[in-house]
């Protein structure tokens, strides 16, 4: 898929920093290309599925050109490890636990669907049905 989705964390409705050390622990085994000047990573799963990843700020990781079950499973692991949510612009915000709904900004919580998606398959289904 060729659109941006965002890995984010929120506390009390405000953006919160992601644990970038943990993010790199999850992503680094899959990195096949890297540009430190632009904070770009290209990841590839064992199934040969790829995604472009941009670590653009301390509170945001952007995925683009992604697809396939392996990438979705990697996203699920990343979300769990970072205690983060997945924001799909114009689509759902995916949380790991229902109680995370209260941590989201009002605009995400009230204006767009919020769905619990814990696995790669659930994330894929939520994106495709939005």
Assign the structural class, choosing from mainly alpha, mainly beta, alpha/beta, alpha+beta, or little secondary structure. Answer: alpha+beta
| Strand residue percentage | 25-35%
Question: Major β-sheet, in short?
Answer: 9 strands, mixed
Q: Please report the distance between the alpha carbons of the first and last residues.
A: 13 Å
Number of helices: 4
Instruction: Flag low-confidence runs.
Output: none
In round numbers, the mean pLDDT is 94
Q: Overall 3D geometry?
A: globular
The rounded Rg comes to 14 Å
Q: Tell how many strands the DSSP assignment holds.
A: 9
Order of helices and strands: EEHEEEEHEEHEH
Helix content: 25-40%
Task: Tell me what the structure shows.
With 130 residues, this protein is α+β, with helices and mostly antiparallel strands. Helices cover 28% and strands 32% of the residues. It is built from four helices and nine strands. It has helices at residues 20-27, 69-82, 106-111, 120-128; strands at 5-11, 14-16, 31-35, 40-44, 50-57, 60-64, 85-87, 93-95, 114-116. Strands 1, 2, 3, 4, 5, 6, 7, 8 and 9 form a nine-stranded mixed sheet that branches. A hairpin with a 4-residue loop joins strand 3 (31-35) and strand 4 (40-44). Helix 1 runs antiparallel to helix 2 (69-82). The radius of gyration is 14 Å and the shape is globular. The two termini are 13 Å apart. The mean pLDDT is 94.
